[in-house]
Amino acid sequence: MSNLDAVSVTPERWDQFVQSHVNAHILQTSLWGDLKARFGWEVERIGLSAHGSLVAGAQILYRRLPAGIGRLAYIPRGPLVDWQAPSQTRATLEAVERAARARGAIAITFEPELCDNPAHSKLLQGLGFRSAPLTVQPRRTLIVDITPDEDTILAGMKSKTRYNVRLAARKGVTVRTAEAADLATFNALMATTGERDAFGVHTPEYYQLAYELFVPRGWARLLLAEIEGEAVAAVMIFAIRDRSWYFYGASGDAHREKMPTYLLQWEGMRWARSLGCTSYDLWGVPDADEATLEGEFSGRSDGLWGVYRFKRGFGGTLVRTVGAWDHVCSPLRYGLYRALMAARRQARPA
Predict the structure, then answer these.
(1) Which CATH superfamily is domain 5-135+322-347 in?
(2) Which of 91-95, 220-224, 334-338 has the weakest average pLDDT?
(3) Which of 48, 82, 192, 303 is a Cys-bridge partner for 56, taking CB atoms 3.0 to 4.6 Å apart?
(4) What is the per-residue pLDDT across 184-210, written as a single tens digit (0 to 9) for each?
(5) How far apart are CA 347 and CA 235, in angstroms?
(6) What kind of fold does domain 140-320 have according to CATH?
């Protein structure tokens, strides 16, 4: 492809392009950039135009690195390009590199929407990328096909999970669409979950802004599970084009035996199907092969292992992306950055 022009893009035009792209991802929408911009990141959107139409591009997030090293540019689930079109891909990467250098970035970390296979690794290496020292988004996930009818989707679940979905309904669990006034309840449930399961959660302000940005647009829904009017669990589901993602979930300590989280996931899938989505991404399981996951999940609870024990029951396909790759802009400062990251990893307690 020739005659490509790098252009700055308005949020509205950018989102139209994202929604039209075969690899459309919620992390590449302008709303995700707006969310991150409120919490320490800078945002820039670069588009490649041909004959007045956007054909490729990337939303870039920037953050300052410690010790005055400079900035790191980060592209989650992008760039949005046709990876089988070398001229388009190279033109996009060149435009991104120019923009990143102008902002003092020492490197650009890409986490593209490419499955993990030797051909894709070879492709990225041929474009001048090197494997990044760490990933930001989970490499491995479970994706449920929600194109069949509801009975078929339920039949594809593990029998215990299917039983728990129905048990929750029999035990009086109800699920409703939450309103903005319910955010305080959601945040209280998140705090309980984080403390109980020992994982980090965002601030209440983060979840509130995510709600305010995405829900009115129709790109997210907050679902609340209740028992006799008492909130017991909640999920926030995101969707765009034909894809949906389960990013945030929380549950209280009461009534857990009534399995409200199972019914919530099912209602999240039903909402995504109502929008025309064909996939439901459960977003993040331990980065191990299927044999290891199936052989060890029952005896492990560290990291994401407890999460896998829950998510595996919904019958999804295990998918692994190619991971994070760096394009280096300043070799010296990039070397300092990698040494700093290595030292920090070694200093972490076991």
Answers:
(1) Gcn5-related N-acetyltransferase (GNAT) (3.40.630.30)
(2) 334-338
(3) 48
(4) 999 999 999 999 988 889 999 999 999
(5) 34
(6) Aminopeptidase (3.40.630)
